Amino acid sequence: MNDSSEIYKTQLVQILVVEDEYILAINLQEILESLGYVVVDIVSSAEEAIEKAQKLRPNLVLMDICLQSQMDGIQAAEQIWNNLHIPVIYVTGHSDKSTVERATLTLPFGYILKPVKDQELYVAIQTALNRYQREQFLMNELEKIRDVVIPTNLQLCFKCPSHVYLIHQLIAYQQMQATNEELKRQINLDSLTQIANRRRFDECFEIEWCRLKRDGLPLSLILLDIDFFKLYNDTYGHLMGDDCLQQVATALKSVVQRPADLVARYGGEEFVMILPNTENQGAIFVAEKILETVRNLAIPHIKSSINTYVTVSIGFASIVPNFKLSPQHLIEAADKALYQAKLQGRDRISIGVVNGF
């Protein structure tokens, strides 16, 4: 088998970009070209994607899922792979369970969430190309021996060692894929609480902001802080402090039910919750549920000046994202509301207002 470093130098890789938002498409093209790839074309519909893939035969297709066409990106990717055998990487803002499950059925070579980062994109593309090359080699070799019966008796394996080697390679490949998925899961988790970490929050928040801005739908953000947590640590010790954080994180996860909602550790004793498609009243309902659920944990806190148990203070803000504002505006509004909740006595909810809205 040829060395992949010789076959897939970036300047030889031709990529078809499928993206219906012009600014995002141009930005993606600039990133790809800065990495040395060749963008053979940019199209905005699923039908065009299939047509161009058939005509241009690129090495790879970067496919948005939500397209302004009769078919979506998943349907287009399925046809491109099944009919043309061209690998596809999804570049999308959708991370909900149903969309991911649909996409997975098309055997994609990657799934990147927007906003796209240069290094992340480069690694995904090179990994996809290496995987494609490896799979093609294995398929070609298996095609050569498809009429040969592979012995199950290990004593006979020496008669067809190359066949056994290929099977071992396929098993190793599947194990590697599983390992990669676990690593991907771990880098997005807070090691202590086993909920999403700050990195995952930043990515998800940006994606949801862009998606809801495009769709004209509301987004709510909840920030909360464990009251007098330093005093809790000083009184009960850091091990009990860690246990407290874990119990609160578990309680927060129990409050949200929708797949698109995200609970993350924002830092220290502070947590954050992303609630897509949620207006003020919905956010208030969730916030009140959080207060109640944490109180019901009944974690003793003798140094708290407001309760004998652990409590939380909550600030939140809601808005329909638009081009005049940035995600940071919503974070700042929720953060100021959290500050007000503490000033007003803690163990309560405060509603923030987004400046300039």
Summarize the structure.
The protein has helices at 4-7, 22-34, 46-56, 73-84, 97-104, 118-144, 161-187, 198-215, 229-236, 238-255, 280-297, 327-343, and strands at residues 14-18, 38-43, 60-63, 88-92, 110-113, 219-226, 262-267, 270-276, 312-319, 349-351. By secondary structure, the protein is of the alpha/beta class. It is elongated and about 75 Å long.
Q: How would you explain this protein's 3D organization?
A:
By secondary structure, the protein is an alpha/beta fold. The protein has twelve helices and ten strands. Strand 9 (312-319), helix 12 and strand 10 (349-351) form a beta-alpha-beta unit. Helix 3 runs parallel beside helix 4 (73-84), helix 9 packs across helix 10 (238-255) and helix 10 crosses helix 11. The chain is elongated, with a radius of gyration of 25 Å.
The amount of helix comes to 40-55%
CATH architecture of the largest domain: 2-Layer Sandwich
Shape: elongated
Our count of domains comes out at 3
**Largest beta sheet, briefly?**
5 strands, parallel
The rounded Rg comes to: 25 Å
Determine and state the CATH class of the largest domain: Alpha Beta
Structural class assignment: alpha/beta
**Count of helices?**
12
Distance between the termini: 59 Å
- Listing every helix as H and every strand as E from the N terminus to the C terminus, the arrangement reads HEHEHEHEHEHHHEHHEEHEHE
Question: Which regions are unreliable across 5 or more consecutive residues at pLDDT < 50?
Answer: 1-8, 149-159
CATH topology of the largest domain: Alpha-Beta Plaits
Q: Can you tell me the CATH superfamily of the largest domain?
A: Reverse transcriptase/Diguanylate cyclase domain
Averaging pLDDT over every residue, what do you get? 86
